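Researcher: We're reviewing a set of sequences before deciding which ones to prioritize for further study. For each one, I'd like a predicted 3D structure that I can look through quickly. This is Conjugal transfer protein TrbD. If possible, include the structure in token form so it fits the rest of the review sheet.
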Amino acid sequence: MGIQDELPFTTIHRSLVRPLLVMECEREPMMYVALISLLIFVSGQLRLWYIVSSLVFFLVSLAFLRAIAKADPFMYRVFVRHIRLKRYYPAIPQIWSGEKKIIYIAPWSGQ
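Model: Here's the predicted structure for Conjugal transfer protein TrbD, in token form for your review sheet.
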């Protein structure tokens, strides 16, 4: 085997395939959480109750989003796509789909 018969080799850098995370969360839901907590903070006119509730909401949401991103960094995008396409791919049979007969043969029946 000569040099011409070798397979081509290409280096793929880790930075090109790694998901973009902000504070170990996906970027889009993290921005939504930050915006909502900022709106709670600003709408309270610097009252202690609103400051604490905004901080608690932010930290709880941050922990939740981190857990989701740790399980699968693209889970938010998959969930959004699932919700958006839900009516196209319903999980229930429709009236016009006809009756489906399921034949189950038990392994111990000898058939």
